[in-house]
Structure formats: structure tokens, C-alpha cells
Design a protein that fits this description.
Elements (H helix, E strand, L loop, with lengths): L5 E2 L2 E2 L6 H22 L3 H24 L5 H26 L8 H24 L7 E3 L3 H19 L8 H12 L1 H12 L4 E3 L12 H16 L1 H21 L16
Antiparallel strand pairs: 1-2, 3-4
Helix pairs in contact: 1-2, 1-3, 2-3, 2-5, 3-4, 3-5, 4-7, 5-6, 5-9, 8-9
Amino acid sequence: MNGTPSVAGKPQRRGIYVVPAIFTLGNMALGFYSLTRALAGDFIPAAMAVIIGHILDVFDGKVARWTNTASGFGVELDSLADFLTFCVAPAFLMFRMVLQNVHPWGLPVSILFVGCGALRLARFNTKTQYGEPKPSHFTGLPTPAAGGMLAIFALLDTALQLDLPMRSLKVVAAQVPVFHRFVPAIMFLLAVLMVSDVRYSTFKNLKLLRPRSLRALVLIGMTILMIYVYPQNMVFIFYVAYIVWGLVDYFLLGRSRRPRAPDQKTA
């Protein structure tokens, strides 16, 4: 049937679909660019491409909602872009930087990360396809967070090894060599988290532009200042905090939300 697509009975202009697709295709292009830079050994631009891709990934969904152009096509295209930029590109970047020298675990860990990312995206698409209501949280670590975590580490690690001029917090600089030493284990953990039932926030209910108190306003101002002074460090901290908070919420705070099994009465 040829006709103008519609949502809830309201016809939509076909051209408007180009707007969110531009962000998604830009994200995909950055993923491919990251692969080419990693292959050439230019790890900083390869890592930056993944991080910028995460920013575009945030905006493509928002643009689709703002313009009322969300569609199944957009979901599929977004997942293809996410698979390239946040699964394949970061795994290849880590393989070139670290894992190709880690025998015999380097290649299997890289493949595991890519495979779990694909499973994570397929599970999300399946729920969307069958019209399940959108929850207030992600189930499993989102692929942009997993790939972004590896990318920001690659950026910091390369900058420190090359002694590039960069304002850095000592506490973060001290953790980067530790992260480097445990890259296989960290990638394994990220892979498992992507296909786990650990809940992660979608930030949809976060209203930063409308703080309810002076304390919240001061906190937001300090955060913006820290990002301006230590951009790479703060991005690293944000990724780590997001990943760790999901684990804390699941294993400690989330126990009270889990349904209890009924007591079994003995005869």
C-alpha cells in the first residue's frame, strides 16, 4: 500500500524523516571513521569518533520525538549504527591498543564484546517490534555506554602515554594504568552487563533545566565547571559512575523491589 505514513491516524510528511536519519547516519559514519583511525594506529581520533557518535545517538532519538517521526525504520537504522559505532569500533580499538598482545584471551574477549552488543540491540528491537510499553529504565547496559567507556579510556591512556598536554585529575590519571592492566576483564564485565537484567537509567525524567532548589542549581553549575576544566576526566567519571551505579542499584538497592517468592507450606 503506497501512502503517507501516519502515527495515531495523523499523516506525516515524508521529508521530515531525513532529519533524524542524518544524525543516525552521522553516527554510523563516525563508527567507520573510528575503525580506519584505529587500523592506522591513531587511537585518539578513533576514540573521539566514538564519543561524538554517542552525542549524535542521544540527539537522533530526541529529534525523532520532537518532530514526531519515530518509526520502525528509524529503530532498525539506529541499531545498525549503534552496532558499528559502539560495538565493533570500540572492540577493534581495544584489540589494536591492548588485546592483540594478550594471548590467548585478546581475540575471544573482543568477539564476546561484539556478540553481546549485537544480542543487546536485538533484544531491544524485539521488544520494540512487538509493541511492549517503554519502561522507565534500560534492561542491560546500553551499547553507547559500554562503547563510550572503552573509548574514553583509550583517549586518556594514549594521551598519558604520549605525554600530551592535558589537564588531568590525579585520581583519574592514577586509575588509567590500572584500567589498562585489566582491559580483558573489564571488557568481559561490560559484555556481560549488556545482556544482563541490570537496570540502567534512561534519564528521561531528569529535568536539569528546572532545578527545584538552590543546592541543585549549585551542583549543576559545579558539574558544568568541572567539565569545562577537565573534560576528558569528567567524561571518564560519568561513564564509570553510570556503570557502577547500575550494579549498586541492582545488587543492593534493588532487592527491595524484587518480588518475593510465596512461602511454601509443608504438609
